[in-house]
Amino acid sequence: MNQPARPLLPVLDPAAASLAMARIASNLAKVVQGKRPQAQAAVTCLVARGHLLLEDVPGVGKTTLAEAVARSFALSFSRIQFTADLMPTDILGVQIFQAQTGTFHFRPGPLFHQLVLADELNRAPPRTQSALLEAMAQGQVTLDGTTHTLPQPFSVIATQNPVDFSGTYPLPDSQLDRFLMRLTLGHPSPEIEAALLRERTLESPVQSLEAVSSAEELLALQLRAAEVKVGDAVAEYAVRLAGATRQHGDIERGASTRAALALMAAAKAQALWEARDFVTPADVRAALVPTLSHRLLLRTAVQGTFSRDEAAHLLEEISRKVAAPR
To answer: What's the mean pLDDT in 81-87?
Structure first.
């Protein structure tokens, strides 16, 4: 049986891509007020075909941002609340036996959506967390020897409470490595917080947020970002930054080659904000902390204490010391 032809994706030049990304970020800023840099970073992450980890204390807008992203792109959306008793089949789906036909029928789980919010991911045990690995790496899941393809585009936005909160499980390195970028939102400014208190009604602002893009445009943006050019000098610069993390005295384990690839993927999407079809050192520096801060193992972590802020400070120090090409 012939499959229906996929609609042709719009062809975007860098200028059109930049305008589209700005339009989407402005839409997100309507509900995530005072967090324009984080809104832009979230758009960058999706355009780079990546998954996003939002790590912060409860109540600062992590879930709101994820829902706003789904609405802005008109993506099919699913929210999975991770808890200690959640099982992998609760996420992936199950095989149901059909007595009439004597065969099994696959019933997809909530993972089969274009944007999945993995809420409080670190409250689930490692076995359940690992159910996301194949999906995030390859856009598919395998159950009982059968591989099921996930819808495209496919992205996971996960929220995580700080590791010192009770009832949490540290995310393993293999899981953290699947997230292209990690962001924190932080508390809004006093002025923004006061405005929220004055203006908030019974309905959350995200409920009335309208789509300003589409899944097709997101796929086109992803294709445009993948075609952004990387010069030899910029590639060597990214390699030197990654190498500096491996040689730093306060870092037990530095950036891997996969981490360097993630850095460049984010930098290519970052270049589109300036309507460029080539990466500059500034794009690499802008992507450095969001893409690498959750991938480093610090010596303080080995000794029992750990702070993402410390990792960010070390990366900023490395960025200042490693000379950028002209």
So the answer is: 91
Tokens 């789509």 correspond to: 211
Quick: pLDDT tens for 265-288.
999 999 999 999 999 999 999 999
| pTM attached to this predicted model | 0.90
Q: Where in the chain is the domain with CATH 1.10.8.80?
A: 228-326
- Residue 212: which pLDDT band, with cuts at 50, 70 and 90? very high
Q: Is the pLDDT of residue 303 over 90?
A: no
Domain limits, CATH 3.40.50.300, in the chain: 10-225
CATH 3.40.630.10 fits 228-326, yes or no: no
Query: Are the CB atoms for 128 and 176 separated by under 8 Å?
Result: no
Q: Classify domain 10-225 at the CATH topology level.
A: Rossmann fold (3.40.50)
